[in-house]
Amino acid sequence: MARITLENLAHSYLPNPQGEEDFALKELNHDWIDGEAYALLGASGCGKSTLLNIISGLLEPSQGRILFDGQDVTHAPTAERNIAQVFQFPVVYDTMTVRENLAFPLKNRGEDASYVARRVQEIARMIGMEDVLDRRARGLTADAKQKISLGRGMVREDVNALLFDEPLTVIDPHMKWELRTQLKSLHHEFGHTMIYVTHDQTEALTFADKVVVMYDGRVVQIGTPEELFERPAHTFVGYFIGSPGMNVLPATVTGHRATLAGHEVALGRDFGRPEGNVALGVRPEYLRLGAEGLPVTVKRVEDVGRHKIVRAELFGQEISVIAAEDEEIGADQTRVSFDPARINVYANDWRVTPQGQGGA
Predict the structure, then answer these.
(1) What is the Cα–Cα distance from 301 to 11, expressed in whole angstroms?
(2) What are phi and psi of 178, to 5 degrees?
(3) Whole-angstrom Cα distance, residue 323 to residue 308?
(4) Entry's PANTHER family (predicted)?
(5) In contact, 250 and 277? CB cutoff 8 Å
(6) Domain span holding position 21
(7) What's the pLDDT tens digit per position in 293-328?
(8) Domain boundary among 230, 253, 280
(9) Which residues lie below 8 Å from residue 274, measured CB to CB, with a gap of 6+?
(10) Suppose 40 and one of 66, 197, 259, 295 were both cysteines; which one would form an S-S bond, judging by CB atoms 3.0 to 4.6 Å apart?
């Protein structure tokens, strides 16, 4: 395993980038801690695969350095970085059996035959392919081939890092859950540094110790699932994490109070006097319908089984409220109230830190 350091790293696919807007990956400084599991999360085109390919050596950055345990590997080829990478679509040797595919990385390194056999059996059990070990890969389904690809990535125990680029795209939903569970088990057992690229928040939040949220080529927040949910550092994080995402409401803020369309809202903390485009960020989970609060118009109610999602209008803006499954949404519920302690304040899309509370 290795500590991976990104130092003033940035990348543009243009030969002569003139400004920040020409960079697919904006300047980034970060340490990936040895032995942790990370997820790179964001929408298509946000730069997450670019970053992964720079770490793996498939792409050389336009600027900056990448270090493994302090050693500069910026110009080192993939083979010298001692990493394993699993891609979005399966990469297998069709003429080989499943057993031969899984054994290939170990045999290439001259591992003892008994160790190869034992390790292949362990991985086959992990990916649920013990019964097809002697079948050729050519006749297998796409999801079976991807499981082989995952297994081949995991079969080595001596790698610096395991990199996964949307590896479960072609896997059926039930198998996705099983494989995510197995990946977490593998991480806990062997402590590999893992970096997992996905646009699926469920995959990211259930797999990773830390989630790296990317937006428009920039890392906007690195945190635990709880931190991303409770204290989104950017309005995009609030929107992207959660279902439905965070409500963002234009407001003016002075100290412990905010004003929305002429109505005052109490804030749980002192946010000073932020300037620019100021807004409140409130999760649907922390809104309550009732007879008190701001005037709201309920538009529709969606029953999703575990709870209800109420779509409503507040001062001409659509908002979402999560209500309990057994909660009746009646005609008397014409107002909405906020939990003051759960309100975040944003200025120009970035979270404002409450005064005297550090990063709280």
Answers:
(1) 45
(2) -65, -45
(3) 5
(4) ABC TRANSPORTER ATP-BINDING PROTEIN (PTHR43875:SF14), MALTODEXTRIN IMPORT ATP-BINDING PROTEIN MSMX (PTHR43875)
(5) yes
(6) 4-230
(7) 999 999 999 998 889 999 999 999 999 999 998 888
(8) 230
(9) 253, 345, 347, 352
(10) 197
